[in-house]
Amino acid sequence: MFRKHPARPPVKKVSALVDKRSHKQRKYISLMLVPSYSSGRTRSLRIPRVVFYCIIITVLAVSAITAGFYLRSEHFADQYRHTRDHLYDTQDTLAAVQAQAEQDLARFIEENQHLYEHLTEEQRNHNLQQRHLIQQQQDALYNLYNQIDALEEMIRDFDQRQQAVIEGLSSRAIIPAVATVLETMFESRAALRHYSTLWDIPIPTVEHNRADVGFVGLSATDLAPLSEETISYRISKLTNELQLQMRLMDELQSYKQQMDPHLRNFPTLWPISAPVSSPFGWRANPMGGGGGEFHSGIDLQSPTGTPIRAAGGGTVTLSGWQGGYGQVVIINHGNGISTLYAHNSANLVYVGQRVERGDIIARVGTTGRTTGAHVHYEVRINGTAVDPRPYMMEHWGQ
Predict the structure, then answer these.
(1) CATH number where 339 lies
(2) Residue 3 lies inside a defined structural domain of this protein
(3) Which of 34, 192, 202, 331 is the most exposed, fewest CB within 10 Å of its CB?
(4) Distances (CA, A) of 56 to 33, 52, 59, 60, 365
(5) Domain match, 208 and 234 both
């Protein structure tokens, strides 16, 4: 009458499945898979401990990264909402100001119409004369505002030109002469700025806005013009600022002229526009045989015959064969700096010749101890080879 369920298979204890004395088993974690139905078999899954811990750590790391991205997105969303609300507030403020201006204009027209209707002919003539004088003053003040705008534009232009010169020189601060002049220039700039702040006296407290330049408001009882003291002060201050900017610009041009010879002679140009096949420093022997050697320059791989350009202006001190270097050109740039161009197929300059930055001095070759066509380029400071890469700032034509 009652269905007889099959007997469950005996479940072995975990202690019976794991041999505690086995070192190999201690490297694993056993997971018991027990089915939800009675007739299923209990299975054991062994996972290496390292894999198990890696899974746990990965899950935690992914969770942390996901939480970080979520919090970051919420931060950006809050910033966006704040910016949007601020923009809406600004638009509302602008609309309110425009509406107020329209109301003031309507009130101004209405007051003038009422005044005109109630004045006698003599009063009208007097009023017309007064308006004419006020209009002249208004035109004069508008001209002053135009002068202010012109002065501010000139100051901005000078500042942009100064900044461009400073940025160009700062990128070459590795040149000793440029670094010295830059330091002097910054000190002069700071001193002039300090003088400008000392000149900055308090502005007179005269309230006005550009819509009311020349008059307080046209009514029957008050046609008095505004004081021009504030605007005159503003023009004087901007004129002083412009004079300082012009003085700074003159000094910059003077400094630039002083540094032009150093900029032309200093080796900042790549000899050829080619990839570096072997950098400066220790390397394996490229000719084979094991061991290492110190590479005193960099190799720029390029086909035979590629023109090699002078990295900077100077005087040729060597043009000829020099042992494992093969055909070599060495240029003295002054201030203890020289450059070497080796393995050339042909040298196009002679000893004592003056070359300028970018002049073609040789062609790429395979002369001397080499495994392929390239130019070996060195920068030497007082005869000691240094890493050329910090000096290689630009390619020909830039």
Answers:
(1) 2.70.70.10
(2) no
(3) 202
(4) 19, 6, 5, 6, 59
(5) yes
340 in a structural domain: yes
Same domain, 127 and 239: yes
**Block residue for tokens 């794991």:** 18
pTM of the full predicted structure?
0.46
- Residue 57 C-beta-side C-alpha neighbours within 13 Å: 6
Two structure tokens written together for 198 = 């000392």
Mean pLDDT of residues grouped by 10 in the chain (398 residues)? 54 52 64 70 77 86 88 84 84 87 86 72 75 78 72 70 68 67 70 55 40 35 50 72 72 71 84 94 77 89 96 95 95 92 96 95 94 94 92 83
Burial class (CB in 10 A: 0-12, 13-18, 19+), 252: buried
Same domain, 103 and 186: no
The CA distance from 239 to 199, in Å, is 12
The total number of structural domains that make up the chain:
3
How far, in Å, CA of 181 to CA of 169, rounded?
9
Domain-located, residue 216: yes
Residue 179 lies in a domain: yes
Q: Are residues 125 and 244 in the same domain?
A: yes
Its domain, for residue 14, covers 9-118
Q: Which of 355, 271, 340, 269 is nearest to 306 (CA)?
A: 271
Does 133 lie in the same domain as 110?
A: no
Question: Of 292, 367, 295, which is closest to residue 329 (Cα–Cα)?
Answer: 367
Per the CB < 8 A criterion, the answer to whether 144 and 214 are in contact is: no
Q: Which residues contact residue 148 at a Cβ distance below 8 angstroms, ignoring those fewer than 6 apart?
A: 231, 234, 235, 238
- Could you tell me if 162 and 232 lie in one domain? yes
List the one residue out of 258, 256, 243, 255 whose CA is nearest residue 192: 243
pLDDT of res. 20: 52
C-alpha distance from residue 185 to each of 179, 214, 257 (Å): 10, 44, 13
DSSP E strands in the chain: the ranges are: 28-33, 43-48, 276-278, 281-284, 292-295, 298-301, 307-309, 314-321, 327-334, 337-347, 354-355, 360-364, 374-381, 384-386
Q: Where are the alpha helices (DSSP H) in 119-175?
A: 121-170
328 and 362 both lie in a single domain:
yes
Distance from C-alpha of 135 to C-alpha of 216, rounded to nearest angstrom: 12
Distance CA 27, CA 203 (A): 82
